[in-house]
Amino acid sequence: MSDSPDILSALHLIVKDVLKMAQANGWIIVEDPSKKDLLGQGDCVLYIESGERKTLKSTGEDNLPPRPSDGSVRKTVASGWFDDDLGFPEFAQQPWYALRERIGKVVTLDNSWCPASCRFLFDGLTNCEEFDLLNLDTSKSDSLCGMFRGCSSVKQLLDIDRFNTSLVTDSSYMFLNCLKLRAVSVSGWDTSHIENTEQMLAGCAAYVLADEEQLSFLNRITSTQSRHGVWRKMA
Questions:
Q1: With a threshold of 0.90, does the pTM exceed it?
Q2: CA torsion, points 140, 146, 147, 152, in degrees to nearest 10?
Q3: What is the CA radius of gyration of the chain?
Q4: pLDDT tens readout for residues 27-44
């Protein structure tokens, strides 16, 4: 059955209304039904994924990122796009910063998100207990500075051992004041280019899982007063 003239006409108008279109990084915050009683403290999930960002001629505004679908119905709190992939060079520049206290979980939805920097990416998410970053591609990132700074509710970050850190030169303040963090894994990281590790673990008492060849790196990052212990995984 062929498309009706009305449908084709509507599609034509939509296409004509698009001023520009490009692949971009979208973010969306939705309420988490399982945490509806938390009174705005960690009751939402932040999703990040790559998508098509379109600017409409008629309004000059961008379209909104698509809502994540996992079979449940959830209220969208806010959404938008990243302007670039260069991280957030200054405090409080994340587009979701005003809603940071409501974020209890972060999920990256696809592996097409490959930022040039993860600097201060999740800084200040004080009520976030879980980070699902398996789809975050860090192969082009040169900085992890302050990435989880102030994330005072997360207890473990073991999955970040899969980060590709071949270009990373700065991991300073990465876990600064992660007060409840008890275990973090850097096993598998290429630490050969990481020069700045200042206060990487300051303010937290985490055990660090690492490979034998990373012992010199461990000595650098655990040589501060915040040192609690190191779990050294031997081959």
A1: no
A2: 170
A3: 20
A4: 899 998 888 777 889 999
